Queue: 3 jobs
Job 1
Amino acid sequence: MKKQLLTLTLGAATLLSSLTHAADYKIDTEGNHAFINFKIQHLGYSWLTGRFNDFDGTFSYDKDKPEASTINVTINTASIDSNHAERDKHLKGDEFLDVSQFPTSHFVSTKYESTGEDKGILTGKFTLHGVTKTISFPITRIGEGNDPWGGYRAGFEGKTTLKLTDYGIDYNLGPASTHVELELLIEGIRQ
Amino acid sequence: MTLKNTAQSYGWISIAMHWLMALAIFGLFGLGLYMVELTYYDAWYKGSLDLHKSIGIITFSILLLRLFWRSINIKPAELPAPKWQKMAAHWMHIALYIVMFLLMLTGYLISTAKGKAIPVFGLFSIPALPWTINNQEDISGLIHATLAWSLIVMSALHAFAAIKHQFINKDGALNRMLTPK
């Protein structure tokens, strides 16, 4: 009886701790339900968009304890794709991303501040072109729940603007193209 | 008008294709070295590449025609030379054809790496292959540049040998590639 009670208490404790512990998610890059897009002005007349096709990451999130949220993303810089072979070749070259020297880019979160239901400000260290800077940007939880295949998923979106010269990319693309917008659209599968 | 090759010399068609390609290849080499140094706000940034691609495709078609013409024509007799020089000349010719072919192929693979066709002087387009590989534009670009330098060095050796035959051996080697006999 005593032993049973102990097991029950232990069991409850485990259950409780798993409830208060933020759930861990793996970004669904395998099923391609995650996108890292970029957008930059062309000559000041129009927008050019592209994306990174290959990246990986995990996050942990609990809607009851959003401040404990963390995210970690690694991008393969050589996977940049603007749907134009010669341009991609330039972007990968030493005038821009210099992917042979800097094959990966990372984002590691350090803080999450809730600003309302499903909204918050994410802060973290972003490394690009060998330069690491602390950046903060708003993110929104789109939704979460069971998927039709027996898993549990949660999705977010976030957007930030980077100044290229902050990351040591100083090729002159003109006055309208000094900043690039990065858009993060991610869906994670709970592990 | 000797269009076809003879036992003594090359015919007009071989001669024309040889010198046209020589001109195109040296032109493409210079243009290639120059255009990669241009930056975004240079007026010829876009035009130089379009021209390089268009001339490249035309040169590629001349190469294919030339290989076809070579296969249905006789070859002028070898000039008297030590055996190793005959061998060297023979293999240099084969190597020049292979390098030219691969050089133009890799150029094509850079521009078509994302499945887009290559416009030729805005008149028609050469479609991409139905498949591409990862980082095709980078891999092809590296090979393209290496082969370009190789071809220039090889052409110089080839020209040096022809000049040596013409002026030291005095066997008219160069004449055979200038006017048919």
Note: The helical segments of chain A are 2-20, 85-92.
Job 2
Amino acid sequence: MTRPAARRTSLPLGLVLPATALLALALGYPLVRQVVLSLQEFGLAQQFGQPPAWNGLGNYRDLLTDSELWVVVLRTVAFCFVNAALTFGIGLGLALLMARMSRLVRILAQCGLLLAWAMPVVAAMTVWQFLFDTQYGVVNWLLTRAGGDFEGHGWLLDPWSFFLVATVVVVWMSVPFVVFTLYAALTQVPEDVMEAAEIDGASPWQRFVHVVLPAIRPVLLVVVLLQVIWDLRVFTQIYTLQKAGGVSADTNLLGTYIYTLGIKGGDFGTAAAAAMFMLLLTVVLTAPYVRLMIKQEED
Amino acid sequence: MRKIEGKSAVRLNKTLATKSVAVAAITALLGVTSACGSDNEDAGGGPDKAEIVVWLNGADTPDSARTWLKETFEKEHPGSTLTIEQQEWEGLVERLTTALTSADQTPDVVEVGNTQAATFTTVGAFSDLSGDLADLGGDDLLPGFVEAGSVDDKTYAVPYYAGSTYVFYRKDLFEKSGITEIPATMADFVAAAKKLKQDSGQADFSGYWLPGKDWRDGAAFLWDAGGDFAAPEGDGWKATLSSPESITGLEAFQDLYTSASGAPADANESDPVTPFCAGKIGMMSRPGWVQGMLTDPESGCPELAEQVGVFALPGSDGEPAPVLLGGSNIAISAKSPNQDLSRDVVALMLSEDYQTILAEAGLTPARESYAAKLGDDEFAQATIAAASNAKLTPPAANWATVEGKFVLEDLYSKIAQGGDVKKLAAAADEQIDAELN
């Protein structure tokens, strides 16, 4: 029955190695490259082969002393929370509603949500742009018909209304995922516990708060976490809307800001430094959720 | 035992979460991380047969020229193919920035706006064409464009075509408003634009179509007033949008936008056909090839297009106004493995046959001796008159990043929205100074 010790240790190691190597290559390399880049003076000339010069923490210093970064960060965080909250609220509401729908209606609703979820972002953005077009958009047409003064109204002109449109689009695209996930979780709430609570005289609200919510808590946390991450790094929607109208300098979020610094402005070092900053921000914002998730698994 | 398992699962979750966060942040920089090239191969060489990719921008190059280029090249090089990929002008700088750095993905021959060329020629993105210059036309090539494609006596990008915008107007609307003569001065022009708008009585009608982000046509009003974007100072550049002359010019733009244009303040000039064909435009500044889009029975409106007349935008002194000297250069990507074949493509694009097709479509040919091929109709006369006083943007190495970051689009759009011209100009000056120096 005794086996050589070497055999016992090498097999698991051999099994773990490929996965670890793949992770290190796919996740580690870009991260290391980005850190290195953020410490260099790396412009267009370096892109085409000239050796980069080391810049120490110069890129970070430039960034942190530039007031624009802080404005962009504030804007990004605000946009992220508003969108995550709206998506979550609407998604939870729809999921609860779906649990009470008749079969046919539910299937119809699910198909609709699935289509919105499956639509490629760029294609969806084209349609949204048509809808909100200044001169020929159907939104302006409808609002004018309804008695408003919206003829030739530029939705993307004012940063506030730009972000209103962006919020509508982003929430529209993210709600289906929340609905499906939460609906799946809701179907797992034990019937007998619900019944017992009802017999004990718990009101619907009490049942929701004290039975349903604790039961779906693990899923809720994951959904919120993912939503915050996704809304922090939102890029395509903002980028496309900026091309359609609006003033890009006033509507940059971190994603488009980094793109502007790097790809449009040809300053890759500073862009990498800004990306590091974004990474830090993501970690800070999501840390509480990750901690909660870990605590929950330990319990 | 269970406890330990739980813990390691937690740890895995944690690392996964942190890593997915890291990936999220890096995505924005993908273009950077995937582009790292240090293999500088020598110019020249390449296989005999290859699939050549040519990037042309916008609808400027007519279809007949594209077909000619493809067929001629493939006939002269059996076994090779030539594919033309059309790029949008908007966002071209960013696409070139990412595409030209990768030997696998780079197009072989690219068209680049004359004002954008310097950004790429100064960093070694293009192959040195100095040795081929004599064969391609030598001193006959448009000098301003050769200069735009040259650094330190070496030429990396050669002229492709030139073209400035001139004014398209609706003859029937002129008649209706009682404007009997083509405007001879800037003041006449502005008055005509305002009158057309007034007579239409429509908010979305443009006496003069001037989308808020169209700084390229808006530049004419800046220059006509004696202003400019930037001027050389010492070793570098100094933005001059706040000079009294520039302010006057920008205010003229604001006045014209407010009282004569019906285009959105945050739109650009990329689609003139839709509003024109909807009958919402009295006058507009567009390059000559737009006429072809208007007369196209499928995408245009031939009936309305029959009413089109053209003239060069008049300046305050009655001479043609200083409009932006538009046009393109062509260059070969330094990272392209097909250097020799690419040179043949460039030679074909500067050949008499090809340039004649461009000239017939209203583009000013790349060689001065071909100018006569433009013909002598109304369009040709307007082209020549507009080019006679045309101006370039500041020839600073980093000018393309000013364009790439939409500094001027944002400035003009904010002015069109009714912003304080002096404050906006001062803020734009600061941004331009930061980019150019």
Note: The radius of gyration of chain B is 24 Å.
Job 3
Amino acid sequence: MCCSHNITEKDLQPGAQDTSYLGRIKGMQFFDPHVHMTSRTTDDYEAMADAGVVALIEPAFWLGQPRTGIDTFRDYYSSLIGWERFRSSQFGIKHYCTIGLNSREANNEPLAEQVMEILPLFIYKEGVVGVGEIGFDDQTAAEEKYYRLQLELAKEAGLPVQIHTPHRDKKRGTTRSMDIALEHKLDPAMVIVDHNNEETVKEVLDRGFWAAFTIYPFTKMGNERMVDIVKQYGTERIMVNSAADWGISDPLAVPKTAALMKEQGISDDAIRMVTYQNAITAFGQSGQISEADFIAVKEIDQSQKFSGNTILRGGQQPRMDKDSIIIR
Amino acid sequence: MPHFQPNRVLSEILRQNITGDAMEWLLEKSRADSTSFNTAFVMIPRKTGKRNISVTQQQQRDLAEYAPGLYVNDWLTDRLARVWLLLQLDSSDKERYIRQVENLFLTAEVNELVALYSALPLLAYPEAWAARCAEGIRSNIGDALQAIMCNNPYPAAYLSEPAWNQLVMKAFFTEKPVEKIIGLDKRANKELACILRDYAHERWAAYRTINPQIWRCVGKFTDEEFFPDIQKLAASGNALEREAAALACNDSSYMPAKELLDTNPELTSAIRSGMLTWDSLAIKMKEHVLQS
């Protein structure tokens, strides 16, 4: 997913940490509709909670190397609705996911067949807000076959679809993804086309689909460009995500983009639409998102103490002072 | 614990807490083939919602008769409906029945796990779930652990001693409300007392606090090895720890412990009068927590 970029001396310098942007978005709430928390640390969860991320969607994807058996798929899907959901709740962040067979691994047909068999066990689970991320990578025949099968599955289940668009031959791959979705009679209002850029956005919006933008250094959108997109296209059916994963990426991409928008004069209401509300409206069509849950997951009582020490009744994680060399 | 059929009470409670449509749907799915049954188990919250339930005192008494310790008042509608649905499974073919329930565990999300573990004391072939229950204790998912550990009569009735000890130790370790463990006093054993004492020593060495309820599992095994810890507790600056020491001495038949208790007539009389018990200490701990 990362690093086709020519690295210069400047890129190798450590960045000074400046978190003053947090002041500009104080009190705002964010929803990151695409972030792979399985690959992230507890530091990231803490930083996201501090920056105002109240809920997120973790799409099922590939783990950096191909799986070789059905059981690892089953365990991965289970972990998205089990352990990772719990881990997220410890930081007061409501965790949703989309479930699907990603395009790369669709190319292992014998395994893909088995995965298709277990998908129905997972897509009706609570908090599963769509089928995703599915679509094209290499744009092979096998990818197309399993993309089509999963569109049918989503249609039957009444779930939104989260489409991953390819890195290479992106524009045509995006068009083709939408053509096929329409061929299967999916309502474009139920389809979120992800990883858009300046070249793809117009067609996606014109055809009535949701356009998601991934703010991801070096290979996808930068957030200065994102600000320009919002200035040009407005906020309707546009949403921002981080797609942070095991590559060099930024789980704070959504709040940082909000801060940049604020700095560049975009209204609070517009910021709210693209960093929170639109994603909820789109994926909320699953019937699985309730904003009340964002508050419930925070009702992890940090005030309760026994003998001066916090008792973690909700099971949430205590904060440690990261700047201290003392670890208790 | 004999197997029982608390179907009537649970059906009654369910009916009064969900819509007629949802009840109809559940009844239909309870008789469906296994694929449809499994999908229904997953989809339950879509039909029943997730609301608090109301249970009458009579229903509570009836349930307690079937399963002493089972407490459903804090369940939500989806949890109740899932447990009820599990009870409708045809159990005539033992192997098939066990396989079907086990499969539900394998793909369960958090709330399904909670329902599945809550249902353990109500399932057929109760002895068949001991390994599953022990496996659940290895989980680190807080809600799943709590469903096994608290207000659930299954573990005390069916777990082996090592698995039981792991449950109690892990409940302390993960700071669960241990007073809600059914059978905590009845299944106290020397091995567990040793494990908990070592844990207390570790916490002391790390300058961390210890839940005074730990000594509830130690008291009756007090001997010359355990006694120094009880003495240390009795001299604590924390009133709740001194009360725990008194209760531990009261549980013990070790003479020096009896003598230690006698040196504190105030706590002795509180215990005699029933004012001070392990349960009242648990309530006091909660109040203390809220005040500080």
Note: The two ends of chain A are 38 Å apart (CA to CA).
